[in-house]
User: Fold 3-hydroxyacyl-CoA dehydrogenase from Leucobacter chromiireducens subsp. solipictus.
Amino acid sequence: MQNLTVLGTGVLGSQIIFQAAYSGKQVVAYDLNDEILAKLPERWEYLKPMYLRDLPDATPEKLDAAVARISTSSDLGAALADADIVIEAVPERLDIKQSTWEQVGKLAPEKTIFCTNSSTLLPSDIAPFTGRPEKFLALHFANEVWAKNTGEVMGHPGTDPAVFEQVAEFAEEIGMVPIRIYKEQPGYVLNSLLVPFLDAAGKLLVRGVAEPKDIDNTWKIATGSPVGPFEIYDVVGMMTPYQLNKDSADPESREFAEYIKREYIDRGWLGKGSGRGFYDYSGA
Assistant:
């Protein structure tokens, strides 16, 4: 599978695009309008120094070649026209993902395999909307995909086992370590471990127990971890925890979502990629 289309160019979508192109794939980046897509060159310039820092084989020439393998489109039909595989990275809401896949299923070539990068939703809740559930499954990436390179492959009961293996092989081709998940699990392996940890940090904050820096330092000093939960939030970006928590049945989770929106999102502080989140990265 050489031709990839990525739906959504946010934090993870843009990383998936760049990583696949760096690994030699031809990638079409799709988003809702050309104004969003016009910002991608800035994103590539942001990512290049990280590749040079973290990957021993990275060179400026390889990074420029990766950018040359990326094209963009705000026309969904055109973006899908020659796709061997599609990876969806749209906002983490079931209705948005279902409606997106309903459109994709009508426009994509018969050959195309469909993958969602959803962090918490089950493939079986989306598969019926695709029109080809046997070719639909999840391929989930960790943030900073070039360095934290797990590719969690999770089907649903109707996924063709051969397609499951094709996606696992594709993940390996783009530099991921395939993690085969044999039973649907909200949050896969990574987020089943990570989300409760981040939730606990958010609740400590909204309860007024401690400030983000002190919560992070407690975790880092006591465990030897290089990062704390609020530093992880900054890498993930503010929109994901906001979307996940704003409609929660837990009042403290909803309070945390409102706190994020009021104190960060409304100010344009969207996390590390924007230069400011819980921490200020403007001088980095």
